[in-house]
Every structure is written in C-alpha cells, then in structure tokens.
Design brief:
about 70% helix, rod-shaped, about 90 residues, two-stranded antiparallel ribbon
C-alpha cells in the first residue's frame, strides 16, 4: 500500500500466485511416499515370514544332524565292541 502526501492510501498492490502446480506436486509426492511406505511394510512382512521359515528349517536340520551323530556313534560303538569279527 502506498500512502499519499496527505497520509491517505493512494495505491494498493495485490499479488496473486497460482499454487495449483505446487499443490499437485505435493499430492503426487505424498502419494508416492505412501506407496513406498506400503511396499516397505509388505517387504518387511515377507522378510519376517522368510526368516521364520529359515529358522524352522535350521532347527529341523540341527535335529537331523544330531540324530545322525548319535546313529554314527551307536554304529561305531557296535563295531568297536563287537566280539564277532566284522569284515
């Protein structure tokens, strides 16, 4: 606003800015962010499930390995303690 010599407004300046493009860009950015967050959550869920399956498989394999070691030990004891010759 400009003031004249008589201390009364002599002119008013108005500035308008179209923010439509900016708002659309912000909305697109927010949508992309939301989609990325959803993908991250889905991937995290998949990784948790995969980790659980691998953990179960590891437990199963350790159990099988332990059974094999015990069987090998029994076979070795049988062979070493047998009074009959094995050829």
């Amino acid at each position: 606003m400009r003031w004249g010599k008589d201390d009364k407004p002599s002119a008013i300046m108005e500035i308008n800015t179209d923010i439509t493009k900016r708002k659309k860009a912000e909305e697109a950015l927010q949508k992309a962010k939301d989609e990325l967050e959803l993908k991250a959550l889905e991937r995290t869920k998949e990784l948790i499930q995969t980790n659980e399956r691998l953990t179960s498989e590891l437990i199963r394999r350790k159990s099988v390995e332990e059974m094999l070691w015990k069987a090998a030990e029994r076979y070795e004891n049988l062979f070493e303690n047998s009074s009959v010759g094995i050829s």
